[in-house]
Amino acid sequence: MAYPFQLGFQDATSPIMEELLHFHDHTLMIVFLISSLVLYIISLMLTTKLTHTSTMDAQEVETIWTILPAIILILIALPSLRILYMMDEINNPSLTVKTMGHQWYWSYEYTDYEDLTFDSYMIPTSDLKPGELRLLEVDNRVVLPMEMTVRMLISSEDVLHSWAVPSLGLKTDAIPGRLNQTTLVSTRPGLYYGQCSEICGSNHSFMPIVLELVPLKHFEKWSASML
């Protein structure tokens, strides 16, 4: 969950999000070093009139500043491709949940159960209880087992939506007529909030997502009570 004036990412809850955070730090350090070098060179050019004549027309310098950026791009691209393939990998999911976007609410269907489906609407501000979060709470949370691979099938029945939960590293478009899929694994229990991340109409800001990750035995009790 984000907090006021937060500058960085939310705490990672899934292995994928941890990899994304490491990649972000890795790339940010490269950008910082390049920016520092460029700033240092610019400051030297502005503060001194000395010119090194042997570097004004040198093949070695041109070779270095051509090869070095290519090496830097490779150092960025390789871990990026690795994470992209990890995000697309499906490892024998233990549970499948179908998510449908509507204007302006989400509906969920647990396809492994015969009749476990519900709609999830945002709770109006006037109905919030003390301690609940404005514009983020829903009347029906998505309860999922932790430490288990869950496959999310995501689509839409009207316009483009986007199902996004930042702390799990999830953001998948909900497209009418197309079924996208993503997987999630939570390493710890808790409540994880997200929102629709695709402008979908006048009430786009009022489509929150709340995932409640619980141990397997609590999930089994919840699913039995819902059937």
Give the helices and strands, then pairings.
Blueprint: H1 15-47, H2 59-88, E1 95-102, E2 105-110, E3 117-120, E4 142-145, E5 150-156, E6 161-165, E7 170-174, E8 180-184, E9 190-196, E10 208-214, H3 216-226
Parallel strand pairs: 1-5, 4-10
Antiparallel strand pairs: 1-2, 2-3, 5-8, 6-7, 6-9, 9-10
Helix pairs in contact: 1-2
Overview of the structural elements:
The chain has 227 residues and is an alpha+beta fold. The chain folds into two domains: 74 residues, Helix Hairpins (Orthogonal Bundle), CATH 1.10.287; 132 residues, Cupredoxins -  blue copper proteins (Immunoglobulin-like), CATH 2.60.40. It is built from three helices and ten strands, in the order ααββββββββββα. The strands form two sheets. A five-stranded mixed sheet has the order 3-2-1-5-8, with no helix packed on it. The protein has a five-stranded mixed sheet with strand order 4-10-9-6-7. A hairpin with a 6-residue loop joins strand 2 and strand 3. Helix 1 runs antiparallel to helix 2. The longest helix is centred in the first third of the chain and has 33 residues. The protein is elongated and about 80 Å long. It starts with 14 loop residues before the first helix and ends with a helix. Its cofactor is Cu cation. Keywords: Copper, Electron transport, Magnesium, Membrane, Metal-binding, Mitochondrion, Mitochondrion inner membrane, Respiratory chain, Translocase, Transmembrane, Transmembrane helix, Transport. This is Cytochrome c oxidase subunit 2. InterPro entries: CcO_II (IPR045187), CcO_II-like_C (IPR002429), CcO_II_C (IPR034210), Copper_CuA (IPR001505), Cupredoxin (IPR008972), Cyt_c_oxidase_su2 (IPR014222), Cyt_c_oxidase_su2_TM_dom (IPR011759), Cyt_c_oxidase_su2_TM_sf (IPR036257). Pfam families: COX2, COX2_TM.
